[in-house]
Design brief:
It is built from 14 helices and no strands. It is an all-alpha fold. The protein has one domain: Growth Hormone, Chain: A. Helix 12 runs antiparallel to helix 13.
Length: 381
Protein backbone atom coordinates (compact mmCIF):
# COMPACT_ATOMS: atom_id res chain seq x y z
CA UNK A 1 0.00 0.00 0.00
CA UNK A 2 2.67 2.51 1.03
CA UNK A 3 5.72 1.58 -1.02
CA UNK A 4 3.96 1.42 -4.39
CA UNK A 5 0.24 2.21 -4.09
CA UNK A 6 0.82 5.58 -2.46
CA UNK A 7 4.54 6.11 -3.03
CA UNK A 8 4.55 5.61 -6.80
CA UNK A 9 1.21 5.10 -8.47
CA UNK A 10 -0.89 7.79 -6.77
CA UNK A 11 1.37 10.35 -8.48
CA UNK A 12 -0.69 9.79 -11.64
CA UNK A 13 -3.66 11.55 -10.02
CA UNK A 14 -1.55 14.48 -8.84
CA UNK A 15 0.32 14.89 -12.12
CA UNK A 16 -2.32 17.00 -14.01
CA UNK A 17 -2.67 19.71 -11.29
CA UNK A 18 1.12 19.71 -10.75
CA UNK A 19 1.70 20.21 -14.49
CA UNK A 20 -0.82 23.05 -14.53
CA UNK A 21 0.56 24.80 -11.44
CA UNK A 22 4.26 24.28 -12.19
CA UNK A 23 4.22 24.64 -15.98
CA UNK A 24 5.69 21.20 -16.73
CA UNK A 25 5.72 19.42 -20.06
CA UNK A 26 5.27 15.68 -20.27
CA UNK A 27 9.05 15.24 -20.19
CA UNK A 28 9.35 16.94 -16.77
CA UNK A 29 6.36 14.98 -15.53
CA UNK A 30 7.99 11.75 -16.69
CA UNK A 31 11.29 12.68 -15.05
CA UNK A 32 9.55 12.65 -11.67
CA UNK A 33 8.70 8.98 -12.02
CA UNK A 34 12.08 8.27 -13.59
CA UNK A 35 13.68 9.67 -10.42
CA UNK A 36 11.42 7.38 -8.41
CA UNK A 37 12.47 4.43 -10.56
CA UNK A 38 16.19 5.26 -10.28
CA UNK A 39 15.76 5.36 -6.51
CA UNK A 40 13.96 2.03 -6.75
CA UNK A 41 16.90 0.61 -8.71
CA UNK A 42 19.37 1.83 -6.07
CA UNK A 43 17.25 0.37 -3.29
CA UNK A 44 17.06 -2.93 -5.14
CA UNK A 45 20.85 -3.06 -5.40
CA UNK A 46 21.38 -2.34 -1.72
CA UNK A 47 18.39 -4.20 -0.27
CA UNK A 48 20.17 -7.54 0.35
CA UNK A 49 23.00 -5.75 2.19
CA UNK A 50 20.60 -3.60 4.23
CA UNK A 51 18.42 -6.56 5.16
CA UNK A 52 21.48 -8.55 6.18
CA UNK A 53 22.73 -5.69 8.39
CA UNK A 54 19.41 -4.62 9.88
CA UNK A 55 17.45 -7.86 9.87
CA UNK A 56 14.45 -8.59 7.71
CA UNK A 57 11.73 -7.22 10.00
CA UNK A 58 13.72 -4.16 11.15
CA UNK A 59 14.56 -3.20 7.57
CA UNK A 60 10.90 -3.62 6.61
CA UNK A 61 9.67 -1.32 9.41
CA UNK A 62 12.36 1.36 9.13
CA UNK A 63 12.15 1.73 5.34
CA UNK A 64 8.34 1.76 5.50
CA UNK A 65 8.46 4.73 7.88
CA UNK A 66 10.99 6.59 5.72
CA UNK A 67 8.78 6.01 2.68
CA UNK A 68 5.79 7.54 4.48
CA UNK A 69 7.81 10.59 5.59
CA UNK A 70 9.16 11.19 2.06
CA UNK A 71 5.61 11.09 0.67
CA UNK A 72 4.48 13.65 3.23
CA UNK A 73 7.50 15.88 2.51
CA UNK A 74 6.38 16.28 -1.13
CA UNK A 75 3.60 18.53 0.13
CA UNK A 76 6.18 21.17 1.12
CA UNK A 77 8.65 20.68 -1.76
CA UNK A 78 9.47 23.70 -3.97
CA UNK A 79 12.48 23.45 -6.31
CA UNK A 80 12.28 20.89 -9.09
CA UNK A 81 15.58 19.31 -8.00
CA UNK A 82 14.32 18.83 -4.43
CA UNK A 83 11.15 17.18 -5.75
CA UNK A 84 13.28 14.83 -7.84
CA UNK A 85 15.36 13.95 -4.78
CA UNK A 86 12.26 13.19 -2.71
CA UNK A 87 10.81 11.00 -5.46
CA UNK A 88 14.14 9.19 -5.61
CA UNK A 89 14.13 8.64 -1.83
CA UNK A 90 10.58 7.27 -1.99
CA UNK A 91 11.70 4.83 -4.68
CA UNK A 92 14.81 3.75 -2.73
CA UNK A 93 13.02 3.00 0.53
CA UNK A 94 10.04 1.52 -1.31
CA UNK A 95 12.28 -1.00 -3.08
CA UNK A 96 13.71 -2.23 0.22
CA UNK A 97 10.19 -2.51 1.64
CA UNK A 98 9.01 -4.44 -1.40
CA UNK A 99 11.91 -6.91 -1.36
CA UNK A 100 11.65 -7.41 2.41
CA UNK A 101 7.90 -7.93 2.15
CA UNK A 102 8.38 -10.32 -0.76
CA UNK A 103 10.79 -12.40 1.31
CA UNK A 104 8.45 -12.41 4.31
CA UNK A 105 5.49 -13.47 2.19
CA UNK A 106 7.59 -16.17 0.49
CA UNK A 107 8.43 -17.59 3.92
CA UNK A 108 4.76 -17.53 4.86
CA UNK A 109 3.87 -19.22 1.58
CA UNK A 110 6.45 -21.93 2.33
CA UNK A 111 4.63 -22.67 5.60
CA UNK A 112 1.26 -22.78 3.79
CA UNK A 113 2.16 -24.15 0.36
CA UNK A 114 -1.44 -24.97 -0.57
CA UNK A 115 -2.26 -21.24 -0.37
CA UNK A 116 0.99 -19.97 -1.92
CA UNK A 117 -0.62 -18.38 -4.99
CA UNK A 118 -3.23 -16.59 -2.89
CA UNK A 119 -0.65 -15.32 -0.40
CA UNK A 120 1.63 -13.99 -3.12
CA UNK A 121 -1.36 -12.26 -4.70
CA UNK A 122 -2.55 -10.75 -1.43
CA UNK A 123 0.91 -9.31 -0.91
CA UNK A 124 0.53 -7.11 -3.98
CA UNK A 125 -3.17 -6.60 -3.24
CA UNK A 126 -2.11 -4.00 -0.70
CA UNK A 127 -0.93 -1.89 -3.62
CA UNK A 128 -4.51 -1.95 -4.90
CA UNK A 129 -5.76 -0.68 -1.55
CA UNK A 130 -3.42 2.30 -1.87
CA UNK A 131 -4.58 3.01 -5.43
CA UNK A 132 -8.25 2.69 -4.44
CA UNK A 133 -7.89 5.00 -1.43
CA UNK A 134 -6.08 7.57 -3.56
CA UNK A 135 -8.85 7.42 -6.16
CA UNK A 136 -11.54 7.92 -3.51
CA UNK A 137 -9.87 10.56 -1.32
CA UNK A 138 -7.80 12.78 -3.62
CA UNK A 139 -10.86 14.18 -5.47
CA UNK A 140 -11.75 15.89 -2.18
CA UNK A 141 -8.88 18.32 -2.82
CA UNK A 142 -8.26 18.00 -6.57
CA UNK A 143 -11.69 19.35 -7.54
CA UNK A 144 -11.08 22.67 -5.77
CA UNK A 145 -9.97 25.74 -7.69
CA UNK A 146 -6.81 26.25 -5.64
CA UNK A 147 -3.70 26.22 -7.84
CA UNK A 148 -1.73 24.59 -4.99
CA UNK A 149 -4.32 21.88 -4.36
CA UNK A 150 -1.81 19.20 -5.35
CA UNK A 151 0.09 19.90 -2.12
CA UNK A 152 -2.97 18.96 -0.08
CA UNK A 153 -3.08 15.75 -2.08
CA UNK A 154 0.41 14.81 -0.88
CA UNK A 155 -0.67 15.58 2.70
CA UNK A 156 -3.53 13.08 2.36
CA UNK A 157 -1.22 10.43 0.91
CA UNK A 158 1.36 11.04 3.66
CA UNK A 159 -1.26 10.73 6.40
CA UNK A 160 -2.50 7.43 4.92
CA UNK A 161 1.07 6.15 4.72
CA UNK A 162 1.81 7.00 8.36
CA UNK A 163 -1.40 5.29 9.46
CA UNK A 164 -0.32 2.17 7.56
CA UNK A 165 3.06 2.25 9.34
CA UNK A 166 1.23 1.96 12.66
CA UNK A 167 -0.73 -1.02 11.34
CA UNK A 168 2.49 -2.69 10.16
CA UNK A 169 4.35 -2.19 13.44
CA UNK A 170 4.01 -5.87 14.38
CA UNK A 171 4.39 -7.89 11.19
CA UNK A 172 4.10 -11.66 11.01
CA UNK A 173 7.21 -13.54 12.12
CA UNK A 174 8.25 -16.73 10.32
CA UNK A 175 8.35 -20.01 12.18
CA UNK A 176 11.67 -21.73 12.74
CA UNK A 177 13.73 -22.52 10.80
CA UNK A 178 13.88 -18.85 9.89
CA UNK A 179 15.23 -17.27 6.75
CA UNK A 180 18.96 -16.65 7.29
CA UNK A 181 18.53 -12.92 6.71
CA UNK A 182 15.59 -12.52 9.09
CA UNK A 183 17.60 -12.04 12.26
CA UNK A 184 20.26 -9.63 11.05
CA UNK A 185 22.74 -11.19 13.47
CA UNK A 186 25.91 -11.02 11.41
CA UNK A 187 26.67 -12.23 7.92
CA UNK A 188 25.29 -15.60 6.90
CA UNK A 189 27.06 -17.13 3.88
CA UNK A 190 24.78 -17.41 0.88
CA UNK A 191 25.36 -19.99 -1.87
CA UNK A 192 26.09 -18.27 -5.16
CA UNK A 193 23.94 -19.01 -8.17
CA UNK A 194 24.14 -18.63 -11.90
CA UNK A 195 21.05 -17.17 -13.54
CA UNK A 196 21.95 -16.94 -17.20
CA UNK A 197 19.50 -19.72 -18.02
CA UNK A 198 16.76 -17.38 -16.77
CA UNK A 199 17.55 -14.63 -19.28
CA UNK A 200 14.16 -14.81 -21.11
CA UNK A 201 12.28 -14.17 -17.85
CA UNK A 202 14.73 -11.43 -16.88
CA UNK A 203 14.39 -9.76 -20.29
CA UNK A 204 10.60 -10.04 -20.13
CA UNK A 205 10.59 -8.38 -16.70
CA UNK A 206 12.75 -5.56 -18.09
CA UNK A 207 10.21 -5.05 -20.88
CA UNK A 208 7.40 -5.11 -18.34
CA UNK A 209 9.08 -2.37 -16.29
CA UNK A 210 9.62 -0.31 -19.45
CA UNK A 211 6.03 -0.68 -20.62
CA UNK A 212 3.65 -0.77 -17.66
CA UNK A 213 4.95 2.32 -15.84
CA UNK A 214 3.99 4.67 -18.68
CA UNK A 215 0.32 3.67 -18.35
CA UNK A 216 0.45 4.17 -14.58
CA UNK A 217 2.20 7.53 -14.94
CA UNK A 218 0.16 9.10 -17.72
CA UNK A 219 -3.25 7.43 -17.90
CA UNK A 220 -4.99 10.16 -15.88
CA UNK A 221 -3.30 12.92 -17.91
CA UNK A 222 -4.33 11.06 -21.08
CA UNK A 223 -7.96 10.85 -19.94
CA UNK A 224 -8.09 14.54 -19.04
CA UNK A 225 -6.53 15.44 -22.39
CA UNK A 226 -9.48 13.54 -23.96
CA UNK A 227 -11.95 15.68 -22.00
CA UNK A 228 -12.70 13.27 -19.14
CA UNK A 229 -13.56 15.31 -15.99
CA UNK A 230 -11.13 15.02 -13.01
CA UNK A 231 -13.72 13.31 -10.79
CA UNK A 232 -14.45 10.66 -13.43
CA UNK A 233 -10.73 10.14 -13.99
CA UNK A 234 -10.31 9.57 -10.24
CA UNK A 235 -13.07 6.96 -10.32
CA UNK A 236 -11.28 5.24 -13.21
CA UNK A 237 -8.13 5.19 -11.07
CA UNK A 238 -10.09 3.78 -8.14
CA UNK A 239 -11.48 1.04 -10.40
CA UNK A 240 -7.90 0.10 -11.23
CA UNK A 241 -7.26 -0.32 -7.51
CA UNK A 242 -10.27 -2.62 -7.20
CA UNK A 243 -8.81 -4.70 -10.02
CA UNK A 244 -5.49 -4.98 -8.18
CA UNK A 245 -7.22 -6.17 -5.01
CA UNK A 246 -9.13 -8.82 -6.95
CA UNK A 247 -6.12 -9.96 -8.97
CA UNK A 248 -4.91 -12.44 -6.36
CA UNK A 249 -8.17 -14.38 -6.68
CA UNK A 250 -8.28 -14.21 -10.49
CA UNK A 251 -4.71 -15.39 -11.16
CA UNK A 252 -3.92 -17.61 -8.16
CA UNK A 253 -4.43 -20.95 -9.95
CA UNK A 254 -2.50 -19.82 -13.02
CA UNK A 255 0.41 -18.68 -10.85
CA UNK A 256 0.33 -21.89 -8.81
CA UNK A 257 0.19 -24.27 -11.77
CA UNK A 258 1.84 -22.60 -14.77
CA UNK A 259 5.30 -23.83 -15.67
CA UNK A 260 8.32 -22.02 -17.08
CA UNK A 261 7.41 -18.46 -18.12
CA UNK A 262 3.77 -19.12 -19.00
CA UNK A 263 2.23 -17.26 -16.03
CA UNK A 264 4.48 -14.28 -16.74
CA UNK A 265 3.43 -14.28 -20.40
CA UNK A 266 -0.29 -14.57 -19.66
CA UNK A 267 -0.36 -11.74 -17.11
CA UNK A 268 1.78 -9.50 -19.34
CA UNK A 269 -0.48 -10.23 -22.30
CA UNK A 270 -3.55 -9.09 -20.39
CA UNK A 271 -1.67 -5.93 -19.36
CA UNK A 272 -0.85 -5.20 -23.01
CA UNK A 273 -4.52 -5.59 -24.01
CA UNK A 274 -5.57 -3.19 -21.24
CA UNK A 275 -3.02 -0.61 -22.44
CA UNK A 276 -4.26 -0.77 -26.03
CA UNK A 277 -7.99 -0.72 -25.24
CA UNK A 278 -8.51 3.05 -24.65
CA UNK A 279 -6.49 3.78 -27.80
CA UNK A 280 -8.61 1.64 -30.13
CA UNK A 281 -12.05 2.01 -28.49
CA UNK A 282 -12.80 5.64 -27.64
CA UNK A 283 -15.55 5.44 -25.03
CA UNK A 284 -15.95 5.75 -21.26
CA UNK A 285 -16.93 2.06 -20.82
CA UNK A 286 -13.75 1.06 -22.67
CA UNK A 287 -11.72 3.29 -20.36
CA UNK A 288 -13.21 1.66 -17.25
CA UNK A 289 -12.70 -1.80 -18.77
CA UNK A 290 -9.07 -0.93 -19.53
CA UNK A 291 -8.55 0.27 -15.97
CA UNK A 292 -10.04 -2.85 -14.37
CA UNK A 293 -8.19 -5.25 -16.70
CA UNK A 294 -4.92 -3.41 -16.13
CA UNK A 295 -5.46 -3.53 -12.36
CA UNK A 296 -6.28 -7.23 -12.52
CA UNK A 297 -3.15 -8.02 -14.51
CA UNK A 298 -0.16 -5.73 -14.07
CA UNK A 299 0.72 -6.66 -10.49
CA UNK A 300 -0.13 -10.27 -11.19
CA UNK A 301 3.06 -10.14 -13.27
CA UNK A 302 4.94 -9.33 -10.06
CA UNK A 303 3.25 -12.26 -8.28
CA UNK A 304 4.15 -14.53 -11.20
CA UNK A 305 7.79 -13.40 -10.99
CA UNK A 306 7.85 -13.98 -7.21
CA UNK A 307 6.49 -17.50 -7.71
CA UNK A 308 9.04 -18.06 -10.49
CA UNK A 309 11.89 -17.04 -8.14
CA UNK A 310 10.57 -19.39 -5.46
CA UNK A 311 10.67 -22.26 -7.95
CA UNK A 312 14.05 -21.49 -9.50
CA UNK A 313 16.10 -20.43 -6.47
CA UNK A 314 16.84 -22.32 -3.24
CA UNK A 315 15.14 -20.89 -0.14
CA UNK A 316 18.39 -19.38 1.14
CA UNK A 317 18.65 -17.33 -2.07
CA UNK A 318 15.07 -16.01 -2.31
CA UNK A 319 16.02 -12.49 -1.23
CA UNK A 320 18.93 -12.45 -3.67
CA UNK A 321 16.76 -13.79 -6.47
CA UNK A 322 14.03 -11.23 -5.83
CA UNK A 323 16.65 -8.49 -5.76
CA UNK A 324 18.13 -9.58 -9.12
CA UNK A 325 14.74 -9.56 -10.83
CA UNK A 326 13.78 -6.28 -9.13
CA UNK A 327 16.99 -4.64 -10.37
CA UNK A 328 16.23 -5.64 -13.97
CA UNK A 329 12.63 -4.47 -13.56
CA UNK A 330 13.80 -1.17 -12.07
CA UNK A 331 16.12 -0.56 -15.01
CA UNK A 332 13.17 -0.86 -17.37
CA UNK A 333 10.90 1.43 -15.42
CA UNK A 334 13.69 4.01 -15.07
CA UNK A 335 13.51 4.64 -18.83
CA UNK A 336 9.76 4.19 -19.37
CA UNK A 337 8.24 7.48 -18.12
CA UNK A 338 10.86 9.74 -19.70
CA UNK A 339 10.72 7.94 -23.07
CA UNK A 340 6.92 8.11 -23.11
CA UNK A 341 6.91 11.75 -22.00
CA UNK A 342 9.50 12.76 -24.59
CA UNK A 343 7.65 10.89 -27.37
CA UNK A 344 4.40 12.57 -26.33
CA UNK A 345 5.98 16.05 -26.29
CA UNK A 346 7.74 15.42 -29.60
CA UNK A 347 4.85 13.84 -31.49
CA UNK A 348 2.08 15.88 -29.88
CA UNK A 349 0.06 13.52 -27.72
CA UNK A 350 0.05 10.72 -25.19
CA UNK A 351 -1.52 8.30 -27.69
CA UNK A 352 1.89 7.59 -29.21
CA UNK A 353 3.51 7.08 -25.82
CA UNK A 354 0.85 4.62 -24.68
CA UNK A 355 1.03 2.74 -28.00
CA UNK A 356 4.79 2.42 -27.50
CA UNK A 357 4.12 0.90 -24.07
CA UNK A 358 1.72 -1.66 -25.50
CA UNK A 359 4.24 -2.75 -28.15
CA UNK A 360 6.93 -3.15 -25.49
CA UNK A 361 4.60 -5.30 -23.35
CA UNK A 362 3.84 -7.57 -26.32
CA UNK A 363 7.58 -7.99 -26.80
CA UNK A 364 7.83 -9.07 -23.17
CA UNK A 365 5.15 -11.71 -23.73
CA UNK A 366 7.18 -13.23 -26.58
CA UNK A 367 10.31 -13.33 -24.40
CA UNK A 368 8.49 -14.94 -21.46
CA UNK A 369 7.13 -17.69 -23.71
CA UNK A 370 10.74 -18.55 -24.56
CA UNK A 371 11.63 -19.34 -20.93
CA UNK A 372 12.42 -22.98 -20.34
CA UNK A 373 12.51 -24.81 -17.06
CA UNK A 374 15.92 -24.02 -15.60
CA UNK A 375 18.22 -25.12 -12.81
CA UNK A 376 19.99 -22.80 -10.38
CA UNK A 377 23.50 -24.13 -9.92
CA UNK A 378 26.54 -23.09 -7.92
CA UNK A 379 28.93 -20.46 -9.27
CA UNK A 380 29.29 -16.74 -9.69
CA UNK A 381 26.72 -14.56 -11.42
Amino acid sequence: MVALGLGRFAYALLLPPMRQALGWGYTEAGLMNTANAVGYLSGSLLAPWLIRRMGLRTAFRAMLLLTALSILAMSAARPFGFMLALRGLTGFTGAVVFIAAGTLISLLAAEHSAQAGLLLGLNVGGIGIGILLAGLLLPLVLTSGDAERWRNGWVILGALALAACVMAATPWQPQAPSHPMATGQGHVPQPAVTIWHLWPALAAYFMFGLGYVSYMTFIIAFLQSQGVPPLTASLVFGALGVGVIASSFVWRRVIDRAQRGHAIAMTMGATAVATLLPLVVVSLPAVFASSVIFGLSFLAVVSAITAFVRREFPKSDWTRGLAIFTIVFALGQSFGPTITGALSDWLGGLNIGLAFSAVVLVGGVVLALGQRRGRVVGGDF
